[in-house]
Design a protein that fits this description.
Layout lengths: L3 H8 L2 E4 L4 E3 L18 E3 L2 E3 L2 H7 L6 H8 L4 H8 L10 H19 L1 H10 L5 E3 L10 E4 L2 E4 L2 H15 L6 E2 L8 E2 L2 E2 L3 E2 L21
Helix pairs in contact: 2-3, 2-4, 2-5, 3-4, 5-6, 5-7
Length: 218
């Protein structure tokens, strides 16, 4: 018997053709800067320097354990940051599965706001192509190759990036600052995460959004 959850997950799957998509896998390849593993897009949250959006996302798993957040953020490599948190994942915030997409959306907004010129340019270089993270194992955040030309997966990261791209086209002023998420215990090193500024200019961001809104057809 197939559960309702399994049906929902299946309904989120998308099929992409490499020739008609902006696909990224390795950070040094074309579009590689879209990856959370990409360097060159430093972040500052609550005056704390964070090397990559991957480290920020992984740290957000553990708002109740500042020492693990520090361990993750102190790593020089984004992959090491991810791996350092892995042994503690059973202690992730209890609502992690419910909020992880919202947190990823917020991390991408921070990456864009604090690296506007380079990251917005990269997003625009994808034109109107579907953005796809190719993954060898993860078909939730990315999509897996099923043959040399076809990828299948939920591609949640790619779809969030497409959403971000459309918002940049529609109204760049939305990213002049990024508000903290309206979720419980949105903390870094024991302190509430503050508004993220973009060179100190005041603007608006918009309200919390549901899971993968407006990209069901992507």
């Amino acid at each position: 018997m197939i559960s309702a959850t399994s049906n929902q997950d299946k309904n989120q799957l998308r099929t992409y053709h490499r020739i008609n998509s902006a696909v990224f896998l390795k950070t040094k390849e074309k579009y590689g800067g879209l990856s959370n593993m990409s360097g060159g897009f430093p972040l500052v949250v609550n005056d704390i320097k964070i090397r990559t959006s991957e480290a920020l996302y992984q740290a957000c798993r553990f708002p109740h354990i500042p020492d693990i957040q520090r361990l993750i953020i102190e790593q020089k490599s984004p992959m090491t940051a991810k791996m350092k948190g892995k042994p503690y994942r059973q202690n992730s915030r209890p609502d992690w599965d419910a909020v992880r997409v919202k947190i990823m959306r917020w991390c991408l907004r921070v990456k864009l706001a604090q690296n506007w010129d380079a990251f917005s340019k990269l997003l625009m270089e994808t034109t109107d192509l579907p953005i796809v993270e190719q993954s060898r194992r993860d078909d939730f955040w990315g999509a897996k190759l099923v043959d040399k030309d076809t990828l299948i997966g939920t591609n949640a990261l790619g779809r969030l990036l497409m959403e971000l791209r459309e918002q940049v086209k529609d109204d760049p002023s939305k990213f002049l600052h990024v508000d903290p998420l309206p979720i419980p215990n949105f903390l870094l090193y024991g302190h509430q995460i503050e508004v993220i500024g973009n060179t100190g200019v005041i603007g608006g961001v918009g309200s919390e959004q549901p899971l993968l809104p407006g990209i069901e057809a992507s």
